[in-house]
Amino acid sequence: MTSVVVEAVGAAQGGLLGLVATMPIETVQKTQVVMQSKGEGQGTSVRQIVERLVKNGGAGALYRGFPVLATMVASEKFLYYLVCVCTRAHIFVRVRVRVRACVCACERQRQP
For residue 15, with 0-12 CB atoms within 10 Å meaning exposed, 13-18 middle and 19 or more buried, which class applies? Predict the structure, then answer.
């Protein structure tokens, strides 16, 4: 069971790494959508948006809301992994037990 928990923690860490890598891209995309909806984003490049975000809020502006998302992503990946592994193990054990019971019953019927 300990290795399952270690692997679930690894899944959570992988989710966090993905969040760190993609969050600035999503922030820029969402900013661009908001700017276009207000009519401000015509002809604005990604570089200009990044410069504007960093100028107004520092480098942390690209990761605004990170603690909340990090908590959600890490817990979701951790729990999803545990549920999948435990569910697969439970189904495998149930199927394996049923197959063994069926084989034993068939062998008993063959014996005279």
Answer: buried
Q: 60 lies in which domain range?
A: 2-79
Residue 107 inside a domain? The answer is no
CA 61 to mean position of chain CA atoms: 23
Q: pLDDT per residue over 54-110, tens digit each?
A: 999 998 999 999 999 999 999 998 888 888 877 766 655 555 555 444 444 444 445
Specify the residue for token string 């570089």.
47
DSSP 8-class letter at 44 = -
* Number of domains within the chain: 1
